[in-house]
TrEMBL record, chain A:
GO BP terms in the entry: pyruvate decarboxylation to acetyl-CoA
Domain Transketolase-like pyrimidine-binding: 34-209
InterPro entries found in the cross-reference section: PDHB_mito-type (IPR027110), THDP-binding (IPR029061), Transketo_C/PFOR_II (IPR009014), Transketolase-like_Pyr-bd (IPR005475), Transketolase_C (IPR033248)
NCBIfam families associated with the record: PRK09212.1, PRK11892.1
Function comment: The pyruvate dehydrogenase complex catalyzes the overall conversion of pyruvate to acetyl-CoA and CO(2). It contains multiple copies of three enzymatic components: pyruvate dehydrogenase (E1), dihydrolipoamide acetyltransferase (E2) and lipoamide dehydrogenase (E3). The pyruvate dehydrogenase complex catalyzes the overall conversion of pyruvate to acetyl-CoA and CO2.
Entry's EC annotation: 1.2.4.1
Principal location class: mitochondrion
Catalytic reaction annotation: N(6)-[(R)-lipoyl]-L-lysyl-[protein] + pyruvate + H(+) = N(6)-[(R)-S(8)-acetyldihydrolipoyl]-L-lysyl-[protein] + CO2
Subcellular location: Mitochondrion matrix
Stated name of the protein: Pyruvate dehydrogenase E1 component subunit beta
A GO cellular component annotation in the UniProt record: mitochondrial matrix
Membrane-spanning ranges: none
From TrEMBL, chain B:
Cofactors that this protein relies on: thiamine diphosphate
Organism: Hibiscus syriacus
Biological function: The pyruvate dehydrogenase complex catalyzes the overall conversion of pyruvate to acetyl-CoA and CO(2). It contains multiple copies of three enzymatic components: pyruvate dehydrogenase (E1), dihydrolipoamide acetyltransferase (E2) and lipoamide dehydrogenase (E3).
Catalytic activity annotation: N(6)-[(R)-lipoyl]-L-lysyl-[protein] + pyruvate + H(+) = N(6)-[(R)-S(8)-acetyldihydrolipoyl]-L-lysyl-[protein] + CO2
InterPro entries registered for this protein in UniProt: DH_E1, PDH_E1_Alpha_Subunit, Pyrv_DH_E1_asu_subgrp-y, THDP-binding
Keywords, sorted A to Z: Oxidoreductase, Pyruvate, Thiamine pyrophosphate
Gene Ontology MF: a single term: pyruvate dehydrogenase (acetyl-transferring) activity
Upper lineage: Eukaryota, Viridiplantae, Streptophyta, Embryophyta, Tracheophyta
Protein name: Pyruvate dehydrogenase E1 component subunit alpha
Stretches assigned to the Dehydrogenase E1 component domain: 88-390
């Protein structure tokens, strides 16, 4: 018994002296590292082998091995009846996916980027999201819409929009956005197993990044709960919420802020709809300051919803106005320097955190 | 709209295969039907390019009329079938007329689109289906629901917005769904139902090939109008259905008007059936005011789909006697045109056929009329007496998995809060 209590004390000591500065990558010592791409590919593979009703549909998912190689190897393994290369007909094949889901099949529809989902948005919202309600529970739609979302590098205005806010405003949909490999595996598996329509927003620039994963994550029955955010980094001074690529930026900003003595808590939202308001509010009640970070357009964005939620539920706890960091309110420019200015950077997050902590002159609200 | 359709060669490839099991396809009238068209081929001029492997265009109306006038001994239907068709069409008509009455009395509200005049299409096609076959429709879906077997009480309650409706009052006139009868809606956007129907057909094929349910030969029917045939989704699905040989029949209810836009003003080539062969499937035009002709064409198209030969595009020339919806003043249509089609009322035509061919007597048909009136009145009474949905029903059925409403402020899932769907919890 003495041994156990000594272990416990030792464990607590280890937690205290664990360096807060290091990034996620250097935390675990002997953990395996996989890229987000491998995480998504292995999730699809395992879910397809577990349930014969799961099938993939999209442009270039089969013979091309996936436009971003996410579906690599799946055509050879499962055959052309389960990995379908479609013609360029977003509205058509999305509707076909919804019709198949009406009958209990589990389609995973890939959009080459979510910008193209605008051609199919009628089916995502009107037939997928609303059907369970309109049919009073008779017909559910266990479909997953996945693909890269948000800005990539130098792809211009029509290929760079973030759709999190659009889809998250619609009842009947679940909207998920993973950051690292663990998120990618867990959330995609949860999405495929879920009986409702799920919009799964990935990020093209994260596909090639590798993150450490534990053995539990690599197990084929692993999944994460939908609707729960994760506190990536604990802190006491300011709460920074982010999703997808911005989580990485927020973690880097937190390291920089640590040097200035500001202890930031970073929340990885994981689930945009339903939003984990309880975690966010609990965090704000602890730190009393909030910064929301997102890549999409600022007006009516995810940050606006989080800000409202906090003002409604934790107004008395706020010591500073909520800071909203979002992409610039312009269509994405092409020139590299302009593009850098149109997307939030680590310096923007640091500056906002300092403002929230009253360490700098308060800035007038920028457009 | 052009009415002259020249005889076209039938490419024998899709139709000459020995069919397998379905007794419907082997019914005597069907094979005789093909006999007559083959005879016609010898006489028609061969201007058409037969090297196209796809299906061809054919106008059925003339051939069937020819056949029925020639042969007096072999009728197209039996007495039971005739009475069933008559009852179904009268049911549709009486129900829609009652809907109009109820709307003007304020019991029904919103958008109500009535099907008067088009009953032959619904009855002709849907009465040939099994329970597991699916039907996807548009906002003009009351009669499709009734033909498919949804009880009149459920449909009327749904229209009144009562909780005993087929969708518990949450869908309404334009969104009729029934899992039990495989009626997949009920879509307000035109063209929206076509990809859904294609997906349902895809599932049938997937079940057979991947899930190895060997006897799954379910067919899907997609009903839509002439205006939809200019919409992108229609063409996308014609392509994919033909590409993947899906068991689906695309039924165009061409009533010549899309609200106030006449078909000829909106379409570069008004002959819709011609769009089928462009995608590699047969395109057929049929007189949609004659239920027997529709039934003949339907038998072949559904049989094709069941045998795995792929999709068919059937254009039914029909007409709606009332306006687009009950809110439509219907000023743009020429009264002469309306009279022309009113004279071709499908119910009157079938009645005449049944009596002339001694399949039924006046008294029997009157008895059916009376029975239907009673059923419809009973449906109205039932709907009237049904309760409106409870407040707690507002938040129900949004998700199949109720945890989709997320985690509440107390850290537990919202749906675990016992007060969640009583309208007291914050959304």
């Amino acid at each position: 018994m003495l041994a156990i209590s000594r272990q416990r004390i030792l464990g607590q000591c280890f937690q205290k002296i664990r360096p807060a500065v290091s990034e996620l990558r250097s935390y675990s010592s002997a953990a395996k590292q996989i890229t987000v791409r491998e995480a998504l590919n292995s999730s699809l593979d395992e879910e397809m082998s577990a349930d014969p009703k799961v099938f993939l549909m999209g442009e270039e998912v089969g013979e091309y091995q996936g436009a971003y190689k996410i579906t690599k190897g799946l055509l050879e393994k499962y055959g052309p009846e389960r990995v379908l290369d479609t013609p360029i007909t977003e509205a058509g094949f999305t509707g076909i996916g919804v019709g198949a889901a009406y009958y209990g099949l589990k389609p995973v529809v890939e959009f080459m980027t979510f910008n193209f989902s605008m051609q199919a948005i009628d089916h995502i919202i009107n037939s997928a999201a609303k059907s369970n309600y309109m049919s009073a529970g008779q017909i559910s739609v266990p479909i997953v819409f996945r693909g890269p979302n948000g800005a990539a590098a130098g792809v211009g205005a029509q290929h760079s929009q973030c759709y999190a806010a659009w889809y998250a405003s619609c009842p009947g949909l679940k909207v998920l956005s993973p950051y690292n490999s663990e998120d990618a595996r867990g959330l995609l598996k949860a999405a495929i197993r879920d009986p409702d329509p799920v919009v799964f927003l990935e990020n093209e620039l994260l596909y090639g990044e590798s993150f450490p994963v534990s053995d539990e994550v690599l197990d084929s029955s692993f999944s994460l709960p939908i609707g729960k955010a994760k506190i990536e980094r604990e802190g006491n001074d300011v709460t920074i919420t982010a999703f997808s690529k911005m989580v990485g930026y927020a973690l880097k900003a937190a390291e920089i802020l640590e040097k200035d003595g500001i202890n930031a808590e970073v929340i990885n939202l994981r689930s945009i709809r339903p939003l984990d308001r309880s975690t966010i509010n609990a965090s704000v009640r602890k730190t009393n300051r909030l910064i929301t970070v997102e890549e999409g357009f600022p007006q009516h964005g995810v940050g606006a919803e989080i800000c409202s939620s906090v003002v409604e539920e934790s107004f008395a706890y706020l010591d500073a106005p909520v800071e909203r960091i979002a992409g610039a309110d312009v269509p994405m420019p092409y020139a590299a320097n302009l593009e850098r200015m149109a997307v939030p950077q680590v310096e923007d997050i640091v500056r906002a955190a300092k403002r929230a902590c009253y360490r700098s002159v308060p800035l007038a609200a920028t457009a | 709209m052009s009415t002259a359709f020249s005889a076209a060669k039938f490419s024998t490839q899709p139709f000459s295969t020995i069919s397998h099991d379905s007794p419907l396809v082997f019914a005597k009238p069907t094979s005789q039907f093909f006999g007559s068209t083959r005879k016609l081929r010898l006489t028609s001029s061969s201007k058409f390019n037969l090297s196209r492997r796809s299906g061809t265009v054919v106008a059925v109306s003339d051939y069937v009329k020819q056949k029925t006038s020639k042969s007096t001994t072999s009728l197209l239907i039996t007495k039971e079938e005739g009475l069933e068709l008559y009852e179904d069409m009268v049911f549709g008509r009486a129900f829609e007329d009652m809907c109009a009455q109820m709307y003007y009395r304020g019991k029904m509200f919103g958008f109500v689109h009535l099907y008067n005049g088009q009953e032959a299409v619904s009855t002709g096609f849907i009465k040939l289906l099994k329970q597991q076959d699916s039907v996807v429709s548009t906002y003009r879906d009351h009669v499709h629901a009734l033909s498919k077997g949804v009880p009149a009480r459920a449909v009327m309650s749904e229209l009144f917005g009562k909780t005993t409706g087929c969708c518990r009052g949450q869908g309404g006139s334009m969104h009729m769904f029934s899992r039990e009868h495989n009626l997949l809606g009920g879509f307000a956007f035109i063209g929206e139902g076509i990809p859904i129907a294609t997906g349902a057909a895809f599932t049938s094929k997937y079940k057979r090939e991947v899930l190895k349910e060997a006897d799954c030969d379910h067919v899907t029917l997609a009903f839509f109008g002439d205006g939809t045939c200019n919409n992108g989704q229609f063409f996308e699905c014609l392509n994919m259905a033909a590409l993947w040989k899906l068991p689906i029949v695309f039924v165009v209810e061409n009533n010549l008007w899309a609200i106030g836009m006449s078909h000829s003003r909106a379409t570069s080539d008004p002959q819709i059936y011609k769009k089928g062969p462009a995608f590699g499937m047969p395109g057929i035009h049929v007189d949609g005011m004659d239920v027997l002709k529709v039934r003949e064409v339907a038998k072949e198209a559904i049989g094709r789909a069941r045998r795995g030969e792929g999709p068919t595009l059937v254009e039914c020339e029909t007409y709606r006697f009332r306006g687009h919806s009950l809110a439509d003043p219907d000023e743009l249509r020429d009264p002469a045109e309306k009279d022309h089609y009113a004279a071709r009322d499908p119910i009157r035509a079938l009645k005449k056929y049944l009596i002339e061919n001694s399949l039924a007597s006046e008294a029997e048909l009157k008895a059916i009329d009376k029975k239907i009136d009673e059923v419809v009145e009973d449906a109205v009474e039932f709907a009237d007496e049904s309760p409106i949905p409870a407040r707690s029903q507002l938040l129900e059925n949004v998700f199949a998995d109720p945890r989709g409403f997320g985690i509440g402020p107390d850290g537990r899932y919202r749906c675990e809060d016992p007060k969640f769907t009583e309208g007291t919890a914050r959304v």
